[in-house]
């Protein structure tokens, strides 16, 4: 049913789901859980909190099947509401292996997030281990110290630790924000520097999670394996991380698609911690059935995990790969050899020898030149050689010489260009190369004509570089050669070559005048400049063939973003470590806080049952107090006209220390309402010892209390919420706000009165403002438009216009504000009404959002009638929801800070609840009851009753707000009950009430 | 959350479309996918593709592309793994996968997808339970549906397992003869490099159980030498604790055939068979000879021996003969030499000449030979089942054990 995407039935479905969530059948509960995301998907904001409530219930379920589905619901409904997890964290960890596999994937992710948010990162994990060992003095959340740290690590080599650090940061902050690094609180650094072995070993929560996930590494489902591996990767102590290796490698023996994804993840792990996978290099050997992507991933991993012990085996393997029929793969292998050699300088010689030998072979094969792919291999060979040589040119002088010697036989333009570049770059190197230079240059000049474009472009700067460094006799020869080449180049077909030749010639001429006279060393600055210019001009040539920059973006292991290398929509980095601590204090119940303080002696079950016990205690108390309450209020209500009746009650409360019973019942009937409330309050105030200010405060209060009931006074105390209809930015400086008024329309009961406040924020006069109904204008015929236009027409009930417009505001001066009342008929109590604002001939479409709280009008009734009606509307007409309320705290704090006479806390609570209700809905306050036997500071049992009837159908609707739990000076847990025959309306009203009650003041 | 699943035929036609959430995915994504696939040429596509509008997961089974789309972050393996399950279940139901059979059984495919995924989240993927909810097609049901006009395959009652604490098993199974068969099926992966050295040799094995037992039996399986196992993976029914402590498999089996566990045994010393290829090239032709023989006699007959290899693209033509078995060369230059059973008296050999492309003196790329074989009655890893205990059973069941080894990725480089 949840799959029917109809907004109208959503509340009904929600109730059904809520009931199913408590069904005895596992399957029903599971289906209820899987229905929740669908409901959430409808984006009815009012429902969200109740959906979360149901998720919470289902997460607490005992059946693994239900928990799995609930986890999925949690992840899509409220992934950040960790308090729901906190309640049952331990049980979730224990149940994890039994949850069905798809649920496991999601649940693991949730638990990981929760642990990070609550306890921060584990200290001995890969993420922070290297980091800690190298910098014992850990800076906290200071960005500058962090920077320092990172640099010192970078200095101390182990590029890995830096990488790990980066990965870790990326996980938490998301790579996009990585650079704008914010505070980074390590769990360990939070507590103690020296206490290095806290977290994952001593922290029970972390340990539990690791215990729960480690059997999952044996799962058949590769997604589960990856998820579990991710947890271990992030949280497990370094010495335990190796547990993930074998399962990960085992997963490699499944389908191609899986293999690809797993390799992607292994790639990151291997880069950060090569030692992890180093012994298992054999598993990354390539088989002929692997696809190209898998091959290149494996090569990459192999080259990053090669160790001194394994590199010879790996290189032997590589030699086989080079003969593979897939030449692209062979080229990749060559570059992997280059990487290996760079990682392990000891192997550089061997690699170079091998590569040189290869290049000889390849030259042979490339002689017939037709095969495009062979040239790619050769280019790659030269490139690898180049990159190896770059690390230590002096040592590899011979290699360079060999390459120069072979220049003749290297035919592939790109490879040739690269050798020529090396010629220019290393022309001063060692003793032998300078001697060869003239010969090589002559050779180059000789074959310049037949060169390919790419090589030509390299020859030009190379010979110029040589020219700069040439000495004595050589200089003259070189000069001749250079001039010859320039002459040739200026007649070249390619304009690019011509241009460059001219440019170089000019710069040379400019330079060579003084140069011939003086010694060449005299103008180093100029030379440098020249070099810089040359580098700049031609450096770009190498780019297309240079290897890809290493991937520096890291996402959580197993996430989609890691594969596509950008943050997919909905990707969330791990929560900030320890970010939950603050929330803990406010939200999570006491047992969690106990765990937080590391007093985790009591197991979850015991604390859970304890919790339940106390809860049941509460409820039993509740019922007792409730019943006594009721009887009292009956009594009270029956004789409420008698003023004297209140006196003995007050006397009781004066005598009793803790228990008291207030029956602030300000308005049994409207006629005596004001008087009654006054007297009630007066009598109530009697118990205050300080009577000095009595009169003043008294009158004050009486007026306030009466504000609850008298409509005329509503503006002073009850402030209806103001919504924006039109922003000044959109409306040429015209600002339109609206608020729902509690007036009842005189025209038709279907109309809702809305006060519209026009304000001119611009500097000009805005003429002719009016609001019309957009739909009616476009759809209805002209006669109806007339109706809309002329106010005087009296519409019949069936033909109520959507909008009874206001009189046109003829003009609005700058800064002037004007208030009008319109009467609107909404199509539905949730869907906004489209209106058009006509001003100055322009038409601006606006949306008027309905507030269900004003689809009712106050229904005056006495408490007996209320209770009677309530008893007639049981079962399916009754809906209950809970919420937190903290408005009164503001009031209480204000009192405290002002040092004014201490008001009674109960009164403040009553006032603030009533105020909140009345400011947000058009209700009638029937009664306010207080528990008799409550303690001084315990607001439990306080009950306010409101009544109203629905505008359109005149169906009565009863609302009772009861304080379920909470001290006066803390947030209260309220339960709101609505009794109404109109199910859908009642539910929506309930949702609205709960939402505004839970709203911050 | 997956948003949509498409099944594409090998010509790019959308055979089936299943929208999973309220956010419809337009079919145009399929044509984008197909264009992308064509633009990549013969090379295989990555399993995860980021298209301009959606992220695509794709797997290809028997020419049918299973394509799933999502727009939000989700574990990619979840998508891929699910598609694999769908493919498995479909081929199980339909007795193989191809375009025609999918088109013939649309109703069943949709029914299955309905049960397997809900709102983009996998729901019931256990094949045994699916089988109970949706009856597999057979001739009787087809005839029935034609006669009665009732085309629904979905059973009216909910399978009992959905409510039980063992979701993979129905509670009320009754068999007259209780039987349980345990098969060890092993695959040998090996790489032999150019020098003829065994670089890698390992066994990937599965314990397959076919259980036909009444009631809710509790089985315990133990091995003689569990310590040789390098790594394991379990069916969800296996309890982790006994394995951790005693390396004993304790489980309540699902009904019928299932994979109880899979394992890996690494670093084996020898392969049962040797394949020695030799290539010598000289002035435009290349002489190829391949020798096959038994190396370490496992004591059982090695049969179904085949050697497959792909001739390099620079080879123009090949002429190969063998003294045993048949040699087939296909137009795409893939060669298959099927030997069958290795004869006792002579060593099978294949030889011939390859003619290279004009201008090419030597063969510079070398093919890899993939070897397949099968040995019945032995598990080459040496793993042995100790005993199988059954509890909760009314009468003594029949227990059967078998073993089989075949070649997995057995590769010989030349």
UniProtKB/TrEMBL annotation, chain A:
Residues 1-20 form the signal peptide. Residues 595-646 are annotated as: Disordered. Keywords: Cytoplasmic vesicle, Golgi apparatus, Membrane, Protein transport, Signal, Transport. SUPFAM superfamilies: ARM repeat (SSF48371). Residues 616-638 have a biased composition (Low complexity). Residues 600-609 have a biased composition (Polar residues). The gene is LOC116187088. Residues 677-831 form the AP-3 complex subunit beta C-terminal domain. Its main location: membrane. It is found in: Cytoplasmic vesicle membrane; Golgi apparatus. It is a peripheral membrane protein. GO terms for biological process: intracellular protein transport; vesicle-mediated transport. It comes from the Eukaryota. This is AP3-complex subunit beta-A isoform X2. InterPro entries: AP3B1/2_C, AP3B_C, AP_beta, ARM-like, ARM-type_fold, Clathrin/coatomer_adapt-like_N. One of its GO terms (cellular component) is cytoplasmic vesicle membrane. Transmembrane segments: none annotated. It comes from Punica granatum (Pomegranate). Belongs to the adaptor complexes large subunit family.
From TrEMBL, chain B:
This is AP-3 complex subunit mu isoform X1. GO terms for biological process: intracellular protein transport; vesicle-mediated transport. GO terms for cellular component: clathrin adaptor complex; endomembrane system. InterPro entries: Adaptor_comp_med_subunit, AP2_Mu_C_sf, Clathrin_mu, Clathrin_mu_CS, Longin-like_dom_sf, MHD. Keywords: Membrane, Protein transport, Transport. Residues 177-413 form the MHD domain. SUPFAM superfamilies: Second domain of Mu2 adaptin subunit (ap50) of ap2 adaptor, SNARE-like. The gene is LOC116192132. Its main location: membrane. It is found in: Endomembrane system. It comes from Punica granatum. PANTHER family: AP COMPLEX SUBUNIT MU. The keyword Membrane applies. It comes from the Eukaryota. Belongs to the adaptor complexes medium subunit family.
